[in-house]
Amino acid sequence: MLISEKITINASSDDVWNHLQSLQGAEQYMPVVTKSEVKGTGLGTTRTCDVQMGDQSFQLMETLVKLDDSQKSLTIAIDNAPPPMKGLLIDFSILGDDSSSELQVSTQSEQTPENVKMIEGILNMICSGLKQFHEK
């Protein structure tokens, strides 16, 4: 099952892409991330995020497993996180021009309806957070 969120950001696709592909500053656009650390650049880059969701805190570990600058698309593997996020591959793609970007964030996963809602909420949080960050 495809789980997907899409949003239009009033910022150049190059600006959004350059920020997204660096994996830097997740805490600047994800309210549940209290701290993030990135190691490396390009394919194989890893990011560790300290996450606080309600009374639950945990570390999320991700690896950049696909990167296509010409198509402005990338895939992040979630290596370590609580269910239902662990093991997911999250695809990001950006279309647009000098003034506007369309960000799509998606994953393929067979999940319970409750977990689908949770994943949709997280993908929506990513989209909304990046929109707010780039439009401020």
UniProtKB/TrEMBL annotation:
Q: Which domain of life is it from?
A: Archaea
Stored InterPro entries: Polyketide_cyclase/dehydratase, START-like_dom_sf
Q: Which CDD domains match?
A: PYR_PYL_RCAR_like (cd07821)
> This protein is called what?
SRPBCC family protein
Q: Look up and give the organism this protein is from.
A: Nitrosopumilus ureiphilus
Classification of source organism: Archaea, Nitrososphaerota, Nitrososphaeria, Nitrosopumilales, Nitrosopumilaceae
